[in-house]
Task: inverse folding
């Protein structure tokens, strides 16, 4: 299962704005969009997810649903993303189609190892910096925090950074063995930045391929 290197976390003050932002992300070249509506009811998330998958399918963009795994299954989204307070990945796996991916949130090496034991497909490790998000009380990792974990953690599963990441951070994060990123604000403020994010993230894999051919 290949996990795209750039995940756009769709945000917006209303359902309409969230869907508009998903549309803008798709037209700007996003490979994967995550629909996260933490405080909404399952019924409301399902309603918006049905609209979102119409958009993402049209652009051949992947759609991931945060938390609501039953919604992810019903609309046949590409997968589900689980925060620490969401259901256990092992339980969720039993409810999903075999081809649907599961991602999980981690802040420490122990978190990462627990998720790997539960056979998730990728890990979102962070936050990279303080975003002022009151829901996230985990300590900020910064580059040193990432390196401390990636130096010890040996896994083929992708480790994505998240938490206030901007274009300026990408190169350093890749040096810290982070394989991709999940971004919200920086993309919502400028959807054209998706192209630049993709270039920066894929530059590393292009270089690796070049060395292989020599």
Result:
């Amino acid at each position: 299962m290949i996990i795209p290197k750039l995940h756009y976390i769709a945000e917006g003050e209303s359902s309409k704005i969230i869907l508009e932002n998903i549309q803008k992300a798709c037209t700007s070249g996003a490979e994967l969009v995550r629909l996260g509506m933490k405080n909404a009811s399952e019924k409301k998330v399902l309603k918006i997810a049905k609209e979102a998958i119409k958009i993402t399918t049209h652009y051949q963009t992947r759609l991931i649903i945060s938390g609501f795994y039953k919604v992810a299954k019903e609309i046949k989204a590409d997968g589900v993303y689980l925060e620490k307070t969401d259901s256990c990945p092992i339980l969720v796996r039993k409810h999903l189609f075999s081809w649907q991916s599961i991602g999980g949130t981690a802040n420490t090496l122990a978190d990462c190892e627990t998720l790997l034991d539960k056979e998730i497909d990728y890990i979102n490790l962070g936050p990279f910096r303080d975003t002022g998000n009151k829901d996230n009380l985990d300590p900020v990792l910064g580059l040193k925090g990432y390196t401390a974990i990636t130096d010890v953690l040996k896994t083929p599963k992708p480790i994505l950074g998240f938490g206030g990441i901007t274009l300026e951070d990408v190169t350093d994060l890749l040096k810290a063995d982070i394989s991709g990123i999940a971004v919200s604000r920086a993309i919502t403020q400028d959807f054209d930045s998706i192209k630049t994010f993709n270039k920066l993230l894929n530059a590393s894999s292009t270089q690796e391929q070049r060395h292989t051919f020599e």
About this structure: Residues 206-214 have pLDDT under 50 and may be disordered.
